[in-house]
Amino acid sequence: MATGRIARRLTAAIALTAVVQLMFAVYFSRSLLWQDDFIRPQVGEHLDEALGLYQELARAEKSAMRSEAAALAERHDLVAAASQKDPAALRRVLADIFPKHPSLVSLTVVRGDRKVASIDRGRPVDEAKENSLEVRRVLGRDVDDEEEDAPALVAVFAADRARTDGLEKMSDFVDLYKQVASRRKNDQHAYMLAFGAALCVSIVGSIGVGILLARNVSTRVVRLADATRRVGGGDLTIRVAETGKDEVSDLARAFNRMLAEIEATRARIEYLQRIGAWQEMARRLAHEIKNPLTPIQLAVEEVHERYGGGDPSYRKLLDATLEVVEAEVGTLRRLVGEFSDFARLPQAILAPGDLAAFLREQAEQSLFAEETEGKDGVPAPRITLAFDVPDKEARVNLDRQMLRRALINLIRNSAQAIRDQARPEGKVRISLHRSGDFWVVDVDDDGPGIPAESRERIFDPYVTTKHDGTGLGLAIVKKVVVEHGGIITAQESPLGGARVRVTIPAVGSAPSAAVRGGDVRAAEATAPPEAAVEQESA
Length: 538
Description:
Elements: H1 2-34, H2 41-73, H3 76-83, H4 87-97, E1 104-111, E2 114-120, E3 130-138, E4 151-160, H5 161-182, H6 184-232, H7 247-306, H8 312-343, E5 351-354, H9 355-363, E6 382-388, E7 395-398, H10 400-420, E8 425-435, E9 438-445, H11 473-483, E10 487-492, E11 498-505, H12 510-516, H13 521-525, H14 529-536
Parallel strand pairs: 6-8
Antiparallel strand pairs: 1-2, 1-4, 3-4, 5-7, 8-9, 9-11, 10-11
Helix pairs in contact: 1-6, 2-5, 3-4, 6-7, 7-8, 10-11
């Protein structure tokens, strides 16, 4: 339903915009077609008058040539010379007449088909530039000769051809104008029909484009709305596509980031709630176990001391019992100590510091001296501890005591893993490098590593891969890292064993500002991808 409403509105808006613009175009084009000042009746009338004048001028010019020929045929000297039948006299008269008439090409006196005398200008008529007119007139009106043998004057005139060409062009133009004027209305209606068809095609195309654009936008908006409803139902795993570079895509990215922050916050809250529950359980276990340990040990010791009999086998049994009880009580006391430490784990108090300098200080100390002793007859391995720390500052917000405790637990965990392999020696390497807004501390060892199926839960309390472990060491480390606004993950080490990666936001970055403000969501949401994936499992 929402898709339909949004799509219809966007399509209607695009179509309406196209229609309004095209209607203005139709209005102006119609005004231009119907307000043509060239096609007017007055223009046609003036053109006809001009053409008539042009034609009248041409007729007058021809009439003048004929009148000129008639006047020449009436000259007394020419008629007299023709009557005397004297060709020489005729030629003299023609030679006298010819220069006085510039438009003449030739003058010829004929009797029937016989030429008597002739004169010309010396060059023929140039058909490309001149038009010629031949006029024949009988010489005189009182000639006594027979009609067929009467002398006649044949005058050939020449006129500039450009005049007649102009007349033809003018005539063609007037004819064309009349044709255009006669079909003007038909052409206007045809133009309007064609323009209307183009308008319809444009409107249909605009509607099609509007539908495509509206469908693209409305589909993404509906996905956002559907994702919002699912989030309202408690599903924080939903994500929307972030394709495109428009405002809807920006909204999708902001929505996904918000969900990531909410999900990280919820995971953090749940983790801290679980840690709180585990700490409370550890406190109770420590209390319940610690109280009976001393009476049990004292009771066994008293039985051992008071027996004064001489039965060697019973004495041997008492010695063995005392040894077992003391060993197990010691183990329980160690467990109680670890439970108590976990239960009393304080909250980190952060202050700006140099993480690189902190690690260099730790390199000068023996951080796992308590693990140099063997276990169950297995000699302690020789552990080579190496630090790879840059000389430049690594400014972070840290709690030096809590972070030292976490680092000791990580090194201890690696040393115990190498010891459990019964190896004579092993290697632990601590390195520091920058990744975006974060400083990354990697703790690598060449021990047995952490199975892939256990990496997601290895930092949970009471989860351990060692035979004598309580599963609290890495849980303490994670709590410290989380309180620093960081991320901790378990990976495979380039040394062949396990890698524990700790990611802490750098001072001055947005995640660091969020941590200092008491909000770790931004730090978790913008952590490096390889860390963020692992963090979700916790």
